[in-house]
Write a structure and sequence with these properties.
The protein is of the alpha/beta class. The protein has helices spanning about 10-20, 35-40, 45-55, 60-75, 80-85, 160-170, 190-200, 295-310, 340-345, 360-365, 400-415, 420-425, 435-440, and strands at about 1-5, 25-30, 90, 95-100, 100-105, 110-115, 120-125, 150-155, 175-180, 205-210, 215-220, 225-230, 235, 240, 245-250, 280-285, 325-330, 335-340, 350-355, 370-380, 390-400, 450-455. The longest helix has 17 residues, at about 60-75.
Length: about 450
């Protein structure tokens, strides 16, 4: 009998198992593949390594070598042997529920007081005629390439599509990026989408937005494929990368046997405590369909495990998403937290400050003045806009946006007055000084970027 069983060994599963080990309870981690999961082997680690290498201007061979070295280095810190030394028992195999607190793996039956499901997600493939037979790539296979494709079509203009389109273009591929929505990064601030489209175009990417793929024809002798885009012509490429999203991996767990319900996408239904519909069973990470980011999965895994192990009478931990940042690792980067300006339009009395990176001295010294900062603030329930009110969200497009957003996320997480960002002395000249400059815009006397009312329509960036 285990105290905690964790199914899945990606970011959420490793975080959950670490909680069990720290609590010195008997913990079992069930892993179908190597511990580390998608993030280590086919996600964050290889993609960001490729992006960095492409930015340095190295050749494809050196770039893909750096990818494999980075994956190997990080995977060694998450191996079954390392986990065992931390007090986590690892069992390789596929888990199936037979009851709420019971699973089977390779014919072996195990029970636990608490179970955390953390089985992650997999790439989705749209039902386009001819696509299955086209020999397409996904993030599961693109890092296995041994030669640079002379030309590449990327289907999907979200974060992954934009990141890899830019990286492969910098490595020397002729890249065409196809997105069905009217703009790239449809979930981002529209002004951010425009900056990234310009950056990709400057890198040599042919951007096709508002294009729905009609069908794909494989070319003879395995020489790539042809994409038919009604109204936008034909795109012929040696390789096709499908980056149209991910789907939860839950279909082979027999969740109904445990009383665990899923939604129509197959995502495990959880509450704010990461509890499923079965008592004692929790879920975390991409398999829940909520906030599909590694750092969010890690936070969910820890919360799920703590709640699975909590003593009666102790309050359950909650997963709070309003202050969790999200980053697109293009160049420049796009970082967001909380509401975009368009969503803030529904918040009465919200205000927006827009600061161009042309007004940031660090950006000027680096010659990287593309981009901007938007801070969105709204009135507090009692004190209104006193002290600048409360932060509702932010969008940063800048060379170091991913590093800059965490200060704003912290301010939102602890609920400080917006004015505290303006009062905090930042080192000069740093990228983060731009946050202090932007926050000053919520107060009279700021130089050149006064706060304005929010607007739902796209603004000129």
């Amino acid at each position: 009998m285990y105290d905690l069983i964790v199914i899945g060994a990606g970011a959420a599963g490793l975080a959950a198992a670490d909680v069990g080990a720290a609590a010195k309870v008997r913990t079992l981690l069930v892993a179908e593949g190597e511990p580390g999961g998608e993030c280590t082997f086919t996600g964050c680690v290889p993609s960001k390594t490729l992006i960095e290498a492409a930015g340095r201007g190295v050749g494809f061979g050196e770039a893909i070598g750096a990818v494999h070295r980075a994956v190997s280095t990080i995977a060694r810190t998450e191996s079954a042997e390392v986990l065992a030394r931390r007090g986590i028992e690892v069992l390789r195999g596929h888990a199936t529920f037979t009851a709420a607190h019971r699973i089977t793996v390779a014919g072996r039956t195990m029970e636990a007081r608490g179970i955390v499901v953390a089985t992650g997600s997999k790439p989705t493939v749209p039902p386009v005629p001819g696509l299955i037979d086209s020999g397409f790539l996904t993030t599961d296979t693109v890092f296995d390439l041994t030669e640079l494709p002379a030309s590449m079509a990327v289907l999907g203009g979200g974060a992954v599509g934009c990141e890899l389109a830019q990286a492969f273009a910098r490595l020397g591929s002729r890249v065409t990026l196809v997105e069905a929505a009217p703009r790239l990064l449809p979930a981002a601030d529209p002004a951010a989408s425009r900056v990234i489209e310009r950056a990709l175009t400057e890198a040599g990417v042919s951007v096709r937005t508002g294009c729905v793929l009609d069908r794909v024809d494989a070319r003879p002798a395995g020489r790539g494929c042809a994409l038919h885009l009604p109204g936008s012509g034909l795109v012929v490429a040696d390789a096709l990368l499908v980056a149209t999203g991910r789907a939860p991996v839950t279909d082979r767990l027999d969740l109904p046997a445990a009383g665990v319900e899923t939604d129509r996408r197959g995502a495990v239904i959880v509450d704010r405590h990461m509890a499923t519909t079965a008592r004692g069973v929790y879920a975390a990470g991409d398999c829940t369909g909520a906030f599909p980011f590694t750092h969010a999965a890690y936070a969910m895994g820890r919360i799920a495990a703590r709640n699975a192990l909590r003593r009666p009478g102790r309050p359950a931990d909650r997963f709070v998403i309003h202050a969790i940042p999200r980053v697109v690792y293009t160049d420049p980067e796009v970082a967001q937290v909380g509401l975009t300006e368009q969503r803030a339009a529904d918040v009465r009395g919200s205000r927006v400050v827009y600061l161009s990176m042309r007004n940031v001295d660090r950006a000027v010294t680096a010659g990287r003045t593309e981009g901007f900062i938007k801070l969105i603030a709204g009135p507090r329930p009692v004190t209104g806009n006193l002290g600048g009110g409360r932060l509702l969200g932010a969008t940063i497009v800048a060379s170091r946006a991913g590093e800059m957003i965490d200060e704003i996320a912290l301010a939102m997480r602890v609920g400080v007055f917006t004015g505290r960002l303006a009062q905090t002395t930042h080192a000069y000249p740093t990228w983060s000084l731009a946050i202090q400059q932007a926050a000053a815009g919520f107060f009279t006397g700021s130089r050149g970027w006064p706060a304005r009312r929010e607007q739902a329509a796209e603004d000129p960036a």
